[in-house]
Structures are given as structure tokens and as C-alpha cells.
Amino acid sequence: MNSITPSKNLQQLPPYLFSRINKLKLEAYQKKLDVIDLAMGNPDLPTDKTIVERLCETVREHPKTHRYPQAKGMPKFRKTVSDWFRKRFGVHLDPEKEILALIGSKEGVAHLCMSFLNPGDYTLVPDPAYPVYYNTTILSGGRVYLFPLEEKNNYLPDFAKIPQKIVNKSKIIFLNYPNNPTTAIVEDEKFFYEAIRFAKKNNLILCYDNAYSEITFDGYVAPSILQYEGAKDVAVEFHSFSKTFSMAGWRVGFVVGNEQIISQLEKFKSFIDYGVPTFIQLSAVKALLEYDNIVPEIRKIYQQRRDIMIKEFKKIGYEVPVPKATMYLWCKLPQKIVDEYGSLKFAEFLLKETGVAISPGVGFGPHGEGYFRLALVTANNRFHDVALRFKKIFLSVGVKLK
User: Fold this and answer.
1) Beta strands per DSSP E along 104-142
2) pLDDT of residue 73
3) pTM of the predicted model, to two decimals?
4) Fold exhibited by the domain 8-47+293-396
């Protein structure tokens, strides 16, 4: 049989970062290492029992929910999203025109690119960033322009530094705060107005990924970009149940905002999938209705884990920033490791030698080099072991700890 080659777009992409890490984890398990997996933002907390019970009852007692769902999302789901959004952000959304159910926000972002990009169109993608923005642009036949997010600027972009000749060829700009992977937040509202003006001026879709809006600490409350005047003219905002409700495997989310963008995304999805299963949508409705009874405890657990991990790192003489949001730590590598290994080789070395899995910063873009992301997805009593294993590796390569 002649060899069958994948599409040119697919060939442009390297192996997915987490697929490579998963392969190394499997090898570590085979070596009988005690693996502590902090690589992927895959919540270890179980979904709240009230949501699970709603699912079981729905599947058992309502067989009509086993049939094909409504692609745009059932009216009850969209109405509940609208009510929650108004209560949470003070933003009114039309359930018929401004809300669309998604099979997780990752799918929604991918299909947004496929809905709007023509071959050669650019997207403006932060660097570092969630890899899906880059990958789905390429798979859609588009081209990527990476704009840097740097620590010295609090990981906020400078829109003025994006070349106008690139902007003129662009269709979409991606923004994501609270930010994955850097954990950065926006504290000055002027940024949102600046982003909206930039998108309007240049006829861009402003894709605002707000997947971590509910995982915030120390009194910080994350906004929706739709709170700001003019946002609905250009913006759509993505939300996920994965982190907020520990429902990553349930695959449900939603996108809200500009009705023209929503309508075209709905049209595209109608050709590709049948939408979120009805019994999952009804479980998500239950989650939103029980928000006040569920989310504060999840938030509290992640804050406790953040504090424990930072304290344990500090004990070994390794200082890391204290994030006000997300389920991650974004950690700067000692310069000696950056010079001799780089973030990818260090992550591989750490996993092979100690069983601790992390995400190398370079996997999120060139400006992620010199950092790693650590997901707070293990039991509290494991963070002490994590710190000791880091200490062992740091000392073995000659890093001087404080």
C-alpha cells in the first residue's frame, strides 16, 4: 500500500505538547516511578454529587434526552446561561441570538477559526498562550502572528507594536485573562477599552477566552469583557465548565457575545456536530443553579494548594510568584537550567528522574522559554514531595538555592 500522507496543514504542527508528556509519563509508570502529574490542567477534584445525581436521574428517567440534541443548545440551557451571566457580570444576553452551547471551549475556539479564516488570513496570538489558538489557526489554513506577553509588562500586550501590515491581514485576535499559562490578571480596566478599540479599528473578531474567570483568589473578581462598552460589536467570550465545576470530562461550555459571530459559528457547527448531549446540558444547568454552593469550595481548595506549594518551594529556597487566579503556578527556571537545558529538556529530565510531570514553558510559545507551568491538581500532602524532588534535581545540576 502506498503511504498516505496527512494534510499539509496537519503536517505543519508538531506533536501535541501533552501527548509527548503523556508518553513520558507512561514510561515513568513502567519504571515503577511514583508519578505526580502536574502537567495538564485536568482537575482531580470530582464533580459535585448534585450534578452527578442530576445526570443519573435524567438519563434514567427521561429517555428523550438520549436523542439528538439541539445543536445551538436547548432553550433551558441558554436561558440559564443568560440568567447566570446577568447575575455574575451584570451583562444581559439574548438567549436566542447571543449564546451558543459548546462541546467544551476548546472545540468552540477551533470551530471559530474554521468558521472565519480563509487561506492566508492571520490570527493575532499571544506568546505564550494556550496552544489551541495557534494550532487551530494552522489547521484552518490561516497564519499566526505571535505578539509577546512579557513579565516586565505584567503579561499584557502592547497593541501598538503589532505591525499594521500584519493587522491588515488579520481576522481574529485572542486574549485570555485570567491567563493560561502565565496566571496574569487584568487590574486596570483601561486595558479592556484599549482592546475593544483596537479590534473595532481593525475589523477584528476579539476572541476572549474566560475559562478561568471563576478560579480567583485573595478577593480578586475577574470581569467579562462584555461588561465594557462596545464589546458586543466585536467580541465573543468563551466559558467552560471544566475548571469552574470540575467537569473537564463532561465536555460542555458556551460562547456568548456578538450575534453575527455567534450565528456563523452555529452554522458551521451544524455541519460538523450535533451539539452537547441533552442530559449533559441539563447537568450543566444544575451546575449553574448550584454555583453558590459549589464554586466557593473549589476556589478555596485551589487557593489552599497554591499556598502550600509556594510555601514548600520557599522552604527549599525557590521563590515563585503568588497568582491571584487560575489553577497554575508559572515558575521561572534558574538561569543555569535555562542555559544548559531549556524548559523542555528540563521537564523531560525531571519526569524521567523523579516522576514529577510539569509543562515546559516553551510548549506555550517562544516567550515561554525559561519558565514552566505547574498545575495544582494533586492532594495537599503531595506538594511536599514535589518540592523535595525539585530540590534533588536542582542540586544535581549545580543550581544554588537560597
Assistant:
1) 122-127
2) 95
3) 0.95
4) Aspartate Aminotransferase, domain 1 (3.90.1150)
